[in-house]
Amino acid sequence: MSLKEKLLSSYIAFEDHLEDDSPLHDLRNKAIKTFETNGFPTKKEEAWKYTSLNSLLKKDYSIFPKQDQAVEFKDVRKYFLHDIDTYKIVFVDGVYSSFLSETTHDKLDVCLMSSALNKPKYKPVIEAFFNKVAKEDSLTSLNTAFAKEGAYIHIPKHKEVEKPIEIINFSTGNEAAILLQPRNLIVVGENAHVQIIERHQSLSNNAVLTNSVTEIFAEKRAYVDYYKIQNDGPTASLIDNTYISQERNSNCNVHTFSFGGQLIRNNLNFYQKGEGCDSTLKGITILEDKQHVDHNTLVHHIAPNCESHQDYKGLFGDASTGVFNGKIIVEKDAQKTDAFQQNNNILIDEKATINAKPQLEIFADDVKCSHGCTIGQFDEDALFYLRSRGIAKKEARALLMYAFANTVLESVKIPELKGRINKLIAKKIGVNLGFNV
Amino acid sequence: MLEIKNLHASVEDKDILKGVTLNVKAGEVHAIMGPNGSGKSTLASVITGKEEFEVTQGSITFQGKDISEMDPEERAHQGIFLSFQYPIEIPGVSVTNFIKTAINENRKAKGQEDMPASEMLKMIKEKADLLDIDRKFLSRSLNEGFSGGEKKRNEIFQMAMLEPKLAILDETDSGLDIDALKVVANGVNKLKSADNAVVLITHYQRLLDYIVPDFVHVLMDGRIVKSGTKELAYELEEKGYDWIKEELV
């Protein structure tokens, strides 16, 4: 039985447990039909030309993992931002871990999707926002059909959340192979501020495939900082589908740090629905071995006077492969748009590959759009300059890598997180410079 | 200190240096002059070990050691420093962090511990004062957005920090106004001692008014064709290089 067939038959069993009058029931049925019709994306589709899921789909994934996988905090402490106080929403093999989490209902909701989907008091928010910005593509639909757990965050208006929120999905390896489909909903009220860190972490070498969907709604003047740490093990793969809907004068920033994992596909979509929005999409990708990371971004400028800034840096070693596919759409009404996209890549080894494709679709006539894409090797003159000062080749290369990544790192607003990312980069490139850039 | 014998070097099979012989002793200042494309910057690059140049013949000896096969960083550890004609911009790495890294990398190569932070700060302050460098300048990204003069001053600041035995200054005077030139020259003069040596590569005699050379060499078409004292520099300033070419014919 193929994974698709297995999923379709699992859905029938899953549906049995759902209440008939659940408002989501129709939505799920529709979603599974979309998946049934379209199946998993293949390389024949333009958007998946350079990323093949074939080998991943051959594994026999467990779809409804056994519950109660105890994980000791001391064993996973390092994956948390443990030096500062944070809210934590933690899942182990797709199941909420109250033991590792620190949620709240005190003037803001930092809790669980399962509660939000089932408890009447959340019904208005679910009806207003759930699946309202997500695309109806095959993988998102697959997630929607099975959506039952994930983070639910609702920040009321004018609330400045004083500590960051961590969303962490652990997988224990208790199953030979596991398919996880977290579903997150984040609603940030008018003039509210929030910082969120998302991480997927496998604790074994068993196969994990995560098909995650996150919807973020930024109301008027809301400010959202979202950080994705993708530093998973060599047998863990992630398809991240993130959709961000922005109202007037809101500001949303997503930083994606892709350092580890077998295959990562980031579908990051921004929709600027009100005037004066600001969107920032930044990423650092550092790969080795045969790792594969595909950044597929969309910034959809619908309203006038908005800005978007994209800055993706990639360092590709060994036989790793990278894809950057950045699309900017400027609608007819989105006059005075200022859209900027930059994607710079360094191929460290001869076998590494990057496929980069900027796409601009502009229907307005008074806009400022620019994009730049570079693919190169290390600047030999810069290397010589550093070495002539007595800095050994390896360290000199590391210094250049830090410098290269700096434009992305400098806008990380949580100092402890920035320090952590610095350390991850140091570990990744095997050199600690003794200072943070 | 530095002995170059019959040095031939090429880049992409094109011969640039065609038999350079040069002796520099401790305590001396040598100026190398010559028209554009004569091989001056190549000579500096070959002495400091830039990999794109291939030494095809001859030898470079520094303090009795053959350095022609050494990596650039090893040559730096031996005490050779090059002030670049076009210093490279490194965004995100401050001047201070860069120089700290360089100093500690040099110490590491010599089997020494990192320099204690307090000592480092004291040294940075002292050398920055010597070159009239503002403290704010030190926290800026290395060479990024620096004016031509700031870049050159920063090169000499690095030289002051690293205390090389042999400093090669490649067109350090270009892009400097007269005040900046005086500051830089003054810094170089203060760093000069009986134990170290300076090689100045320049187009113009102007710099030599401030850093007075013991010897002046003319490099043309990859060879040193004439050597003399500082008076030779005045002669070149006045008459250009053509008369030397004619002399050679």
From TrEMBL, chain A:
The UniProt record lists the SUF system FeS cluster assembly SufBD N-terminal domain at 2-167
**GO BP annotation list:** iron-sulfur cluster assembly
Taxonomic superkingdom: Bacteria
Identify the residues that the record assigns to the SUF system FeS cluster assembly SufBD core domain, covering every copy: 176-404
Q: Which family does it belong to?
A: Belongs to the iron-sulfur cluster assembly SufBD family.
Protein name stated in the entry: Iron-regulated ABC transporter permease protein SufD
Species this chain originates from: Ulvibacter antarcticus
Instruction: Tell me the organism's taxonomic lineage.
Output: Bacteria, Pseudomonadati, Bacteroidota, Flavobacteriia, Flavobacteriales
TrEMBL record, chain B:
Annotated ABC transporter domain residues: 2-246
The UniProt entry, under PANTHER family, shows:
ABC TRANSPORTER I FAMILY MEMBER 6, CHLOROPLASTIC
Question: Which GO molecular function entries does the Swiss-Prot or TrEMBL record give?
Answer: ATP binding; ATP hydrolysis activity
Q: Name one Pfam family in it.
A: ABC_tran
SUPFAM superfamilies linked? P-loop containing nucleoside triphosphate hydrolases (SSF52540)
Family assignment from sequence similarity: Belongs to the ABC transporter superfamily. Ycf16 family.
Keyword terms of this UniProt record:
ATP-binding, Nucleotide-binding
User: Do you know which PROSITE patterns this protein is assigned to?
Assistant: ABC_TRANSPORTER_2
Q: Fetch the InterPro entries from UniProt.
A: AAA+_ATPase, ABC_transporter-like_ATP-bd, FeS-cluster_ATPase_SufC, P-loop_NTPase
Protein name per the record: Fe-S cluster assembly ATP-binding protein
Q: Which domain of life is it from?
A: Bacteria
Recorded source organism is Ulvibacter antarcticus
Q: Which NCBIfam families match?
A: sufC
